[in-house]
Amino acid sequence: MPASSKAQQTTARVALAMKRGEIPKTPGTPAYDMMRTMTDEELRDLATGPIVKPKK
């Protein structure tokens, strides 16, 4: 699943780091919510995949 923006990709990277325990978990942030609802594989794909703009 490709990211739709640079901000979404960055948030996925932060969420993945939280899930791995590399940075502290901060409840109430979009990255924290993403970390709780997505699997490691989904986060990794979103964080490392290409950015694809949605077609209008």
UniProtKB/TrEMBL annotation:
InterPro entries: DUF3008. Pfam families: DUF3008 (PF11450). This is DUF3008 domain-containing protein. It comes from marine sediment metagenome.
